[in-house]
Amino acid sequence: MTIYTDRTRFTRGFECRWKRLLGFHAFGTGITANRVAVPLALGRHVHTVQEEVTKILIPTPKWSDTVQLTVRKVIQDTCDKLTKEFEEELATQPTPRSDEDRRQMDLLPALTHGYARAVLPWVLENYEIVASELEISYPVPNTDVIWMARPDLVLRTRVEPGSTDESEQPLTIVDYKTASYWNAETGPSQWASSIQMMANAYVTGWTLQRKVDTYYMHMLVKGNKRYPNHLTHAYFRAASPPLFEDKWTTARTAKMSKVRVADYRTIQDWIWNGLKSEEVGEKFPVVGPFTVHQYTVEAFFRGVEQEEMYWHNNLKDLDWTQWHQLSFQNELDRRFPRTFACHDFTGSRCQFYDLCHKQPEWGNPMQSERYKIREPHHPQEENEDA
Ligand code: SF4
C-alpha cells in the first residue's frame, strides 16, 4: 500500500473535510468547478512563466544585458502563448469577459516582467539556481505515506569560482506567492512558521542529501479590482506636439487620466522602460530568509500518518456510483464531518456549495457541466493505489 499526499490536500482537509473529500477523492481524483477561476489561473500561469525563465538560467549566469534580453524574450513568448490559451478558455464561459478578467490577464506579463526586473538580478548576484520546480517524493519514515512537494526554486549561495568548494555552500528554497496586498510590517509573520515551507525545505534537503535550513517567499503583489496597481494601470496624458510628448506617472496628477496601460503601450515596455526601478521593486518584496525548525517539521510528519490513514480507511470501500443515494450521502456525513464554513470573509462561496447544500443537479454533478474531474497536480499521483 502506498498513500500519496501533499500540503494542499492535507491542509484543505482541516478547513472542511468535504473540501478535501470532493476536491481530491470524489469520483476518482476529485472534482473541481468547471468555471475558470481567473485569479487561480493567473497564479498557475505565473508559475509556468517563472519555470520557463529559471530553467534557462541553469547553469546560472550573472545578470547582464544579454541575459536580460534572453529572459525578456522567454517571458514574452510564454506570456503570449498562455494569454492566447487564457482568452480561449474564457471564451468558453457563459459570462462575458469583464474588466477584471482583462486586469488579471494584464497581470501575467506585468508580474513576470516585473519580477525579472526587480528580483532576478538580485537572485543571480547572490545565488546559483540548483533546481526549478523540483518534484519530490518523500517517504514519511515508518509509514506507507509518500509526501509530494515541489518547491519553486532551490538556490545555492554563490561563490566566486575557485574560492571555496561550492558544493558546501548553503542551500535555500523559494516559493513565489501572488497576493492582492502586502503589508511589510505584518506580512512576514504569516510565513515565519509556515509548515508548508519548512516541510518543503526539509524534504528538499532529504532529496539533495544536503540540509536546507532556510526558505524565502518572493511576493508578487497584484493590487485588486478596486485599486489596480501601477504595474497595469497608470496616469496618462496624450502628447500634444510640439509642446510635449506622452506623459505617464504612477501618482494622480492634474490633467492626467488613469488608464489601462495595455491600451497604449506594451506592458513589457512599461515595466522595463516606463517605471523607475523602485516603483517596480515595491511590488515584489523578498521576504526571508526564515529558519526551518527541525522540531516543527518532525512534529508535523509524526501526525501525517494518522491523518492519511483516516482518509485511506474511510475512502477505500466507497462506491462513487452511489453518490445520488441518500444512504451514501448519510454515510459520507458520518465518515467526513463538515465545518459548513461555506463563505469566506469576502462573501465568496465555496466551489462545492451546490453539492453540500443540495442545490438542483446535486445528484449528478458530472453531468451538470458545473464540475469536471480534477487533473492531478503531481505525476506521482498516477501510481496511487485506490
Ligand atoms: S460547501 Fe461548505 S460544507 Fe461543503 S465543502 Fe465547502 S465549506 Fe465544506
Describe the structure using short key phrases.
386 residues, alpha+beta, Lambda Exonuclease, Chain A, five-stranded mixed β-sheet, three-stranded mixed β-sheet, 13 helices, 13 strands, globular, binds iron/sulfur cluster
Describe this structure in words.
This protein has 386 residues and is of the alpha+beta class. It folds into two domains: 3-26 and 317-383, no CATH class; 38-226 and 264-295, Lambda Exonuclease, Chain A, CATH 3.90.320. It contains 13 helices and 13 strands. It has helices at 7-15, 17-25, 38-55, 65-91, 99-118, 120-126, 189-192, 195-208, 267-274, 277-281, 294-315, 326-335, 353-356, and strands spanning 3-6, 31-33, 127-132, 136-139, 145-149, 153-157, 171-179, 212-221, 233-237, 247-249, 257-260, 286-291, 371-373. The strands form four sheets. The protein has a five-stranded mixed β-sheet with strand order 3-6-7-8-12. A three-stranded mixed β-sheet has the order 1-5-4. A hairpin with a 5-residue loop joins strand 4 and strand 5. The longest helix has 27 residues, at 65-91. The chain starts with a strand and ends in a 13-residue tail after the last strand. The mean pLDDT is 91. The chain binds iron/sulfur cluster (SF4). Iron/sulfur cluster is lined by residues 16, 18-19, 338-342, 350, 352-353, 356. The site of iron/sulfur cluster (SF4) has 12 residues, from helix 2 and helix 13.
